[in-house]
UniProtKB/TrEMBL annotation:
The keyword Lyase applies. The keyword Lyase applies. It comes from Siphonobacter curvatus. Pfam families: Ala_racemase_N, D-ser_dehydrat. Keywords: Lyase. InterPro entries: Ala_racemase_N, D-amino_acid_metab_enzyme, D-ser_dehydrat-like_dom, D-ser_dehydrat-like_sf, PLP-binding_barrel. GO terms for molecular function: D-serine ammonia-lyase activity. Belongs to the DSD1 family. Residues 253-343 form the D-serine dehydratase-like domain. One of its GO terms (biological process) is D-serine catabolic process. This is Alanine racemase. It comes from the Bacteria.
Length: 362
């Protein structure tokens, strides 16, 4: 096989199935992200894609100071890395209100914000914090129908939050991950219309932070002024977004490595990449794309096995190493405890996927 950018010079150092982070490519993706945003100050990248202290520190090095997370563990990971500002972009309910408050106490040098999208959550946070201040953003549902207050009720919720002295309203969180038109101009038209509908429905405080979008709408919201941008997947990139977002010039920076463990019948190979090692929420033909295997079909996966029909069966040997691009990188990373770190084909480090856990210390 011809050596390519992804080829490991000493593959025996890397167990399989495993995930490999290509550090030089991660750095380039961060640089591209900053260039699209126009400055690191506009960025609030999501940590859910990589879940590692080391990648967050690479972003801190270039001047990114604000980060978005989905779990208490991700928030703690960001604080452990030295993030000055963290938004917990997930509804804080039940015991997580107390855990969020504990984060503030344990990591006083990090400013933690949370989302509210209804009066019940807002009042619960207000009651728990008492005389203390809880910085919050209002989560807006502008069409995704997952979380967020509907646009028609947004001004009413804003008014209610202002009546709760423990809550400090910092701005709006407007996530539009449902808008995934392949054509950029079509996507831009839909994204802009959804955003403008929110702006037309309320009285916007000039002191608010307006946090917009994710990776699909990143290049759209970057064109407007006065908003913050929160892409995530582009740090590592994946097969799914590479196919969908042709205008975004990010590079695959994380690959799966898997080995042939059996040749059970002519034309078939079995690899050690089961659905415990790659995100399995999509059909089997949209889970992983192999870079050094031609004319193949991933037929099935069980927990620890993947069965592949190949045209080059005679030339494939048990023990051969395959490199695969996940279709969806974020949940794939969460399936691995560590990542092998590579520079110029050489293994240079191993990073812990620390916030794949639901709990670190809090």
């Amino acid at each position: 096989m011809t050596e390519d950018w992804f080829t490991l010079h000493h593959p025996d150092l890397v167990p399989s199935p495993g995930i490999v982070f290509y550090q030089d490519r991660i750095r380039r993706n961060i640089a591209i992200m900053v260039a699209i945003a126009g400055s690191p100050e506009r960025l609030i990248p999501h940590t859910k894609t990589h879940k590692t202290i080391e990648i967050l520190k690479l972003q801190l090095e270039v001047g990114i100071t604000k980060f978005k997370v989905s779990t208490i563990a991700e928030a703690e990971m960001a604080a452990m890395a030295g993030a000055p500002w963290v938004l917990l972009a997930y509804p804080v309910v039940g015991p997580n209100v107390a855990r969020w408050h504990q984060l503030m106490q344990q990591y006083p040098e990090t400013s933690f914000q949370a989302l509210v999208d209804n009066p019940i959550t807002a009042h619960a946070i207000h009651t728990y914090f008492g005389e203390e201040k809880a910085p919050v953003f209002i989560d807006v549902n502008n069409g995704m129908d997952r979380t967020g207050v509907e646009v028609e009720n947004l001004q009413s919720l804003i008014d209610y939050v202002h009546t709760l002295p423990s809550l400090e309203l910092k701005g709006l969180h407007i996530y539009d991950g449902h808008i995934r038109n392949t054509d950029f101009e079509e996507r831009k038209e839909v994204v802009d219309a959804a955003y403008q509908r929110v702006m037309d429905a309320i009285q916007v405080d000039e002191n608010w932070m307006i946090i917009t979008g994710g990776t699909p709408s990143f290049t759209v919201h970057a064109l407007r002024t006065g908003t913050y941008l929160s892409p995530g997947t582009c740090l590592l990139w994946d097969w799914g977004y590479d196919d969908l977002l042709e205008e975004q010039p990010f590079e695959w920076a994380a690959l799966l490595v898997t080995r042939v463990v059996s040749k059970p019948a002519e034309g078939l190979i079995t690899i050690d990449l089961g659905h415990k090692a790659v995100a399995a929420e999509n059909p089997v033909n949209r889970r992983v794309k192999f870079l050094n295997l031609a004319e193949y079909e991933l037929l099935s996966q069980s927990e620890e096995h993947g069965v592949v029909r190949v045209s080059s069966w005679e030339s494939i040997e048990v023990g051969d190493l395959l490199y695969g691009v996940p279709y969806h990188i974020c949940p794939t990373v969460a399936l691995h405890e560590t990542a092998t770190v590579v520079e110029n084909g050489e293994v240079v480090d191993e990073w812990t996927i620390i916030s794949r856990k639901r709990k670190i210390t809090i």
